[in-house]
Amino acid sequence: MKLYYAPYACSLSPHIVLRELGLPFELVKVNNQTKETADGRDFLTINPKGYVAALELDDGQVLTEGPVIVQYLADLQPEKELAPPVGTWGRTRLQEWLNFLTSEIHAGAAPLFRSAVIPKEAIDYFRERLFKRFDYLEGVLAEQPYLLGNAFSVADAYLFTLLGWSTFLSFDLDRWSALPAHVKRVGERPSVQVALQAEAEA
């Protein structure tokens, strides 16, 4: 398999999951500006959507969209329990979390990366809207260590990635307590440390 990624982008989530599972894969960096891969390919021929993550399977098929990729990977090694089994209530809850993260946190943070071209009043609105979602997450994680309860899942890899963007968006997580605790907890996992190191060195 090949994982096409950009450093610290949402592709970090499937990268962490691949490391958690110990699956063999090749990490291929993508230049987000030129859409050229580190091995000289036009990324748009791999994923015409133009953004990471993309997972190229050994048979040449390409899977896109991070929440789908992480579930696909988790199901390759169900014994690692990074996702509840398909068809269970737990899996439905996982999908609920992944949808919330992608639509409310991921998409909610996107305008903040455009602060140079979006009026300040709009940026303030989007930031406060995002912070309300953080308030909700704070309430959940104040009661349990991970999104699904006591066990780390692919949803936590995704949330860790999204919360890490605070570094680039000029705000910190100090107004909450459970959110930075979650970042610290997940960040201490060997898989996360290896993934971050690999992306930093690329």
TrEMBL record:
PANTHER family: GLUTATHIONE S-TRANSFERASE GSTA, GLUTATHIONE S-TRANSFERASE-RELATED. It is an enzyme of class 2 (transferase). Residues 1-81 form the GST N-terminal domain. Signal peptide: none annotated. GO terms for molecular function: glutathione transferase activity. Residues 87-202 form the GST C-terminal domain. Keywords: Transferase. This is Glutathione transferase GstA. Its EC number is 2.5.1.18. The keyword Transcription does not apply.
